[in-house]
Specification:
This protein is an alpha/beta fold. It has 9 helices and 11 strands. α1 crosses α2, α2 (18-25) crosses α3 and α5 crosses α9 (275-287).
């Protein structure tokens, strides 16, 4: 598969119209149709359902679209890195970030770094640790800010000095909102909204101890903003850590016994770093 043909495929998938896609790509419609048919022949699958005035992706086409987007993104990123290996750092640094107060520290480092190297641009991708690690492995991200617990055996890392305290996000009209802290027993018979990450679930199970099997899990989440909406609507209370975010009509109540977690900035071991990436890592080490 040629990258050029994948570009063609993605444009047709986006526009759902071969004529319009051909105009945007500055190629003739017969040329574009021929390239798509050759791609289907090469892969041995049908990528589009073809109608009189439009096309839409088959299931195989939707799978290729996801993979093609990753391949094209990786190609563009590689091109930028090769073009920006001059003495003065330039280009893009792609960082995956979980929801953590450590993002404030990282953002401060980004500001001071760009004051020194204004040709560097940051691209931030927000997700949970598992998704970020997957994109690092695929080369789509240069590094990741991961919230523990997380397996970092494959990575070089910098441990950040910020500790996150766990608690529950509750509605202001909840009896829990009047407490200074909540214990496992306080959460019996209350629907819980918790992280879908298995390591986090295991950490919380240890905190709950013997009563964990009695807990009612109403929903799981990966981003706290979505969990806050569920809490607001009365689905349950969300187990999360305190990001200092202010949600209207909601209150954060810390757990007792106290439970905390840290975060790490990671990148692949033995990875060839661009000048910008290497300088940024040194910049953060010096700042800490």
């Amino acid at each position: 598969m040629e990258l050029r043909v994948l570009h063609y495929f993605l444009m047709v998938a986006r526009e759902e119209n071969i004529t319009k896609a051909a105009q945007l790509l500055h190629v003739t419609q017969p040329t574009l149709s021929r390239q798509l048919m050759q791609l289907e022949k090469e892969l041995g699958v049908q990528l589009f359902h073809r109608g009189k005035h439009s096309v839409r992706l088959t299931e195989e086409g939707m799978l290729l679209r996801r993979r093609a987007q990753e391949l094209v993104s990786l190609s563009e990123k590689t091109k930028q890195e090769l073009q920006c290996r001059e003495e003065v750092p330039a280009g893009e640094i792609a960082i995956g970030c979980g929801e953590t107060k450590s993002m404030s520290l990282l953002s401060s480092s980004m500001v001071s770094f760009r004051e020194r190297y204004p040709l560097v641009q940051f691209s931030i991708y927000s997700a949970i640790a598992d998704d970020i690690k997957e994109r690092i492995e695929k080369g789509l991200l240069d590094m990741g800010l991961l919230v523990e617990p997380v397996d970092i055996s494959k990575y070089e890392y910098i441990r950040l000095p910020v500790e996150e305290r766990w608690g529950v996000l509750v509605r202001e009209d909840s009896p829990l909102a009047r407490k200074a802290s909540v214990s496992p027993e306080d959460l019996l018979d209350i629907p819980l909204i918790m992280s879908r990450r298995e390591p986090v679930k295991n950490q919380l199970a240890s905190w709950f101890g013997t009563v964990f099997d009695q807990m009612e899990i109403a929903a799981t989440y990966n981003l706290i903003v979505n969990a806050a909406f569920m809490v607001e609507q009365g689905l349950g209370v969300a187990l999360c850590f305190d990001l200092g975010a202010v949600f209207e009509n909601l209150r954060f109540v810390p757990l007792w016994p106290r439970m905390e977690t840290g975060s790490v900035l990671v990148w692949k071991k033995n990875q060839a770093l661009s000048s910008a990436q290497a300088q940024f890592i040194r910049h953060i080490r010096n700042a800490l």
